[in-house]
Structure to design on (402 residues):
């Protein structure tokens, strides 16, 4: 019998219990032992819940119970999750988490601690919800030098962008829907401003580099500036708009960013809609490989946590190698990145813009008077910012990926 505890009985934590109950026979067969959820930690009571009798309010009962061998940390946030995870690992208990905030901030330290104490710190659910991406990077792609990762890594923003594009839905209304469906963070600013995707690309980059990326250094833009008019232009150009997280190894460091991008409608990432996420991984000998699935939501995320529980239960007392050291990864300055840009310009500034950007093909939409749009040639962020400063009538700009 393997005894586990779940810290946090919210969306993901209750999903963990549900997945274990629903698939108990299969899971136990795969582990080769019975599983028991001995405790569920939460500050609330859950009268009438089938797990009512396992609810505890004091983490000490779990951390000091030698019978508990695996902990699912589904609390989110840094504290008290950080302290509880450290205490659990120091006691030789493996920890499986969906907490991307904590993994991005303290991944290297917690993995090192798990190694020292002969247990594991696993975080499959921290990136891409239910999509298996951490285990593939750690186990299946170990022959590769991964040179680029491009992903749609946030379900909430992809859901919002899809509904804006397909149904002309209003930002605020769709965000509320995403919250009701259990996709959004407690503070949805983390989703819509791109911070959540930023932490996820930091985790992936740390894994491919084997060293730590400071997520605070990653250039991050969210989707709050994207408007229905941007989608009108995108449609006219056979494109769509997605929030892309990108990390690429270049000669002098990694270039990482999270920004809304215009993509041609036919490229695979453009076809990822709603709460789905996708991660495209480019290896130096494998070429491109893509992972696709539900990026948020109770059961998909819980399924990833439980897959980690199975892994830990199969390897009790044995640390599984995960190379992520405390050394910093050098990130290239974002200003050196090269893109094409889609620019919306006021008609009154056309002469100014012509002088700065040179001859460009202009897109004029009947329904949008007083403005036009155009695509620039490829240029660095620094060059674009210099041109931007020279024209007064720029309404907005979106990076373009071909
Ligand atoms: N808020 C996150 C998202 C949850 O929308 O992707 C999954 O990490």
């Amino acid at each position: 019998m393997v005894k586990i505890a779940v810290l946090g009985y919210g969306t993901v934590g209750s999903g963990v219990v549900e997945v274990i109950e629903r698939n108990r026979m299969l899971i136990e067969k795969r582990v080769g032992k019975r599983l028991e959820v001995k405790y569920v930690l939460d500050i609330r009571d859950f009268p009438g819940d089938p797990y009512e009798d396992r609810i505890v309010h004091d983490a000490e009962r779990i951390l000091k119970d030698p019978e508990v061998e695996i902990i699912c940390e589904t609390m989110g946030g840094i504290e008290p999750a950080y302290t509880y995870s450290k205490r659990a690992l120091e006691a030789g208990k493996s920890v499986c988490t969906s907490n991307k905030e904590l993994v991005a901030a303290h991944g290297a330290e917690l993995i090192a601690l798990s190694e020292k104490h002969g247990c594991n710190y696993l975080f499959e659910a921290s990136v891409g919800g239910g999509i298996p991406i951490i285990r593939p990077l750690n186990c299946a792609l170990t022959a590769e030098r991964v040179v680029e990762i491009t992903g749609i890594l946030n379900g909430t923003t992809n859901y919002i962008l899809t509904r804006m594009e397909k149904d002309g839905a209003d930002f605020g209304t769709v965000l509320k829907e995403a919250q009701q469906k259990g996709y959004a963070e407690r503070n949805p600013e983390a989703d819509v401003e791109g911070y959540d995707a930023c932490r996820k690309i930091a985790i992936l980059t740390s894994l491919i580099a084997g060293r730590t990326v400071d997520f605070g250094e990653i250039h991050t833009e969210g989707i709050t500036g994207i408007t229905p008019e941007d989608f009108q232009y995108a449609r006219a150009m056979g494109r769509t708009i997605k929030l892309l997280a990108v990390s690429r190894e270049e000669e002098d460091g990694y270039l990482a960013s999270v920004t809304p991008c215009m993509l041609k409608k036919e490229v695979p990432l453009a076809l990822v809609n709603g709460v789905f996420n996708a991660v495209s991984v480019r290896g130096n000998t494998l070429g491109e490989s893509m992972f696709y699935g539900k990026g948020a939501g109770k059961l998909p995320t819980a399924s990833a946590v439980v897959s980690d529980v199975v892994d830990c239960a199969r390897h009790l007392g044995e640390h599984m190698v995960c190379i992520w050291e405390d050394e910093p990864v050098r990130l290239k300055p974002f200003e050196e990145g090269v893109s094409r840009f889609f620019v919306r310009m006021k008609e009154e500034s056309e002469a100014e813009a012509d002088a700065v950007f040179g001859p460009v093909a202009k897109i004029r939409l009947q329904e949008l008077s007083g403005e036009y749009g155009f695509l620039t040639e490829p240029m660095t962020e620094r060059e674009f910012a210099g041109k931007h400063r020279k024209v007064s009538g720029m309404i907005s700009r979106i990076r373009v990926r071909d």
Q: What stands out?
A: The pocket of L-homoserine is lined by residues 100, 129, 154-156, 183-185, 191, 196, 295-296 (CB under 6 Å). The chain has three domains: 2-129+298-314, 139-293, 334-401. The chain has a mean pLDDT of 97. The first strand starts at residue 2 and ends at 7.
